Amino acid sequence: MKDQLGNNVKEEMDNIRIPEDKLNHTIQMAIERGKKDRGGHGKKWIYYSSAAVLLFGLLIGSALVSPAMANVVSKIPYLGSIFESKDDVVVGMSEELREKGYPINGLGGSFPEKVIRIWIEGDKDYFNRVKTEVEEVAMEFLESRNYDAYTVKVSRYEEREVPQKDKETQQRSEDFQLIDRRVREELNKRNIEVIQLAHVARPESIQIQIPNNTEATSDEIKEVVREIMSENNIRSIPVEIKKINMQKREQDRRWREILQIVSDDLLGKKVYKVRMVGYSVHPEPEIQAFITLSSKDENAKDFAKQLEEVIDEFLKSDQMKERIKGDPYHITIYSKDDKIIN
Q: pTM of whole model > 0.90?
């Protein structure tokens, strides 16, 4: 944990899966609660199993700090206040805007740029009239939570024509829907739980996730799928079976929630100097924190040590004990140039 990444940077970073909805590009999020009120389903944040969700940062406790870091660390607030906010920044801001009557079509975040993007429905005249008002409401909402790391961009929502699927693509889609329904039905009859069934385009395959304690063999399940494809005159598609450790899956869910709890506060405040953070549960839970200091900065190592201590202090707080459930874990701090510095 103390060694720099050196030539192993790429290998280490490849092990961190980054959820596309939170990082590297802007997501357009249908307003969850607003859509539900209108009977829709809305879009949901997607997290990959074993993903490194880059959404964490640092807090400050009572530990002593080096003189070189005293000025910086003394300004870092404690993270206990994050439990006071019921909603995350996206849901909270969307509700604030909707309550004021603005027709919000979508609202999302772009990371690590930290841009909150808002899409407004309406014609150009209406958009031009309310654009500044919406920006002001959004900024006031961020200020109410002391989030000074975000910028806001308001855009007019324009419907785009959905391209029509060609006949071959449409047929593949219909075939997969049939396979999905029939395979689930047949495996359910055999008391085989299906965690996930997916159609992968490249290379094309049917991927099925099942619990690792499933008594049926992979060959038996593959045969079920092949028979269904044959009975319905569907061309043969390779079938892959993946057995999932259910205890590890549950652990992954808990650590994803742990990161989600602190994501808004730590990304929202400049004082934390956090550009991204991540988690993994393989082989054991690990927090990866990515800060804005270069490994060549004379204060970087001191800052990283303090960061590790305060993250650890927060994870050991009474509020987090129930979620952590005694799991042993590691904390790894990465510099701006992606070197381990703690």
A: no
